[in-house]
Amino acid sequence: MKTLNFIALLFAIVVLQTTNLFSQNANQAFWVHEDQVKPSMQKEYEAVSKDFIAACKEHNLKDANWATASIDDGKYLSISPIDSMADFDKNPLAPLAEKMGEENFRAIFNRFNECYDTHRDYVVHLIDGLSYMPNGLTTNTVGEDYRKWHFFHVTPQNLTNLRDKIKEIKALYEKKGAKQHFRIYRSGFGSNGDYYLAVISAKDAQSYAKTSAETDELLGEEGEKVFDEMMQYVHKYESKTGRMRPDLAYTATTDFKD
Question: How far is it, in rounded angstroms, from Cα 122 to Cα 190?
């Protein structure tokens, strides 16, 4: 669009009791764990993440699925869909700790702890009615791991106006048949302030820039007008660039026999 401890926290983000990580209903909630990784420790962070995933696969960790994204500012996001806050009370890593042994299990998380000084957890909600994906709403955009995140921060008195303008933008994209698709999220529990978030997938930065330029031309003055109107209700705008990391994601298997 113009477009407790660390282990306890991880228990919360990896829990999932659904068969398909990326099949969403309207207003699907996602739990996000965000690590601000030190620049000098990014290689180690990715290495220990892969070692942890290898351990999960080796010991057939069940009921645990997460996607991972890396942002150019050094943040890594672990993302899991959730059904309710009750999901946070479950502990799917207990069988892994038992199979690995307490010492080996804790050693992995001690390595994680060396990679960052701050991390946090929050919830966002995918809003079906505001998102524009004509072929079906999904976060699993095969072949398009590049991501652009557009944050539209809003004060409480302007929430309704901003939402209505996003609806107008979606309607305009639909009318014009725009090729650039977007998903809209709404900030939830634990988020820093109120915002709507537009997420756009692309093959790479060049593809994103090309499609954005084509969309701007397609929408023309009508599009420029509605975007300008929308920004009247935004008190801060920011964008971030990054990509999904399938190599740092985990999905439980169902055909493994111990």
Answer: 4
- Domains and their CATH numbers in the chain: 6-122 (3.30.70.100), 124-242 (3.30.70.100)
**Residue 136 in tokens:** 């079906």
Q: CA 85 to CA 90: how far, in whole Å?
A: 10
Q: What residue spans of the chain are helical by DSSP H?
A: 6-14, 42-58, 94-100, 102-113, 159-176, 205-231
Cβ atoms within 10 Å of 43's Cβ, excluding its own? 10
In whole angstroms, give the CA distance from residue 98 to residue 62: 13
Q: How far is CA 165 from the centre of its chain?
A: 23
- Give me the residues paired with residue 125 across strands: 29, 186
Contact assessment for residue 70 and residue 145, using Cβ atoms and an 8 Å cutoff? no
pLDDT of residue 87: 61
Question: 196, 154 in Cβ contact below 8 A?
Answer: yes
Reported residue count of the chain is 258
State residue 44's pLDDT score.
Answer: 98
Q: What is the reported pLDDT for 253?
A: 62
pTM recorded for the entire structure: 0.85
Cβ neighbours of 227 (radius 10 Å):
18
